Amino acid sequence: SGQCLLSSMIGGRSGNRGYCAQPCRKKYRIGEAEGYLLSPKDLNMSEHIGALLDAGIDSFKIEGRMKRPEYVAGVVRVYRKLIDRYLAAPADFRVTKDEKHILLQLFNREFTTGYFFGNPGNELMSRKYPHNRGTLLGKTVDYDSRTKLVSINLRAPLRMGDGIGIGNRETGITVRNIYIGSKIATEAAPGSTVKIPLDIEVSEDEVVFKTYDSKLMASLEAGNAGKIPIKMSFKARIGELLGLLIDDGENKVTMRGDIVNPAKTTPVSKSSIAEQLIKLGGHYF
Q1: Structural domain spans, the chain
Q2: Which helix (H) or strand (E) holds 8?
């Protein structure tokens, strides 16, 4: 990605400065061919951690600039376990079924090992669909246009709050209601047939993907709920630049603002400044 200048050239947003607009995920046409022609699959080297470590690599980059915090937490957790297991017992190393599932579920446009083992040619690309595939959930059975309910035969669990996508459609939905027969359920097991509300008409036997696993995300969020204590020192003197020092015990950041002018009406109070500074939103501070 460090050699890609496409976003910079066509939109002025440099991927090398953290501002990639992801033009490779858009549709393009070459002659009669149309699709996501520049969209590569996602790199996954989990099964080859041993080869990377044996090559002398001691630092791994996890792509997460436009991903959820839970994605970063989940992927880092899996790779940390894989690295530790390989270093402890190289001959016994393998990626577990659960770890493979987590990596697929968190985000995938299908996986590739890139150019690590030669030129993969067209196998590098994911030209039909540029978004998260997730994991296989099941297949559609039928669609009732009157009630706007789609019937799905499940091959994996489904819960309220899960996200699903059908076929290669651009948009997906969040599951708000699950019907098993005439009863409302909060979850359904593999092998069952459920009905869920869907505004778009779909055909029989279309593939359904689970693109968001509410249970997995909740577990990752719960395991990453710690807060980092910080101290803030705010300085404002007439005729000088505003100053704010933030210290978390290991790192210090200083920010400067405009020159402070005398108040025209009511001066800003110490309490009102403190009230604004403690508004940290959902950050882990």
Answers
A1: 1-27, 39-124, 135-222, 231-277
A2: helix 6-11
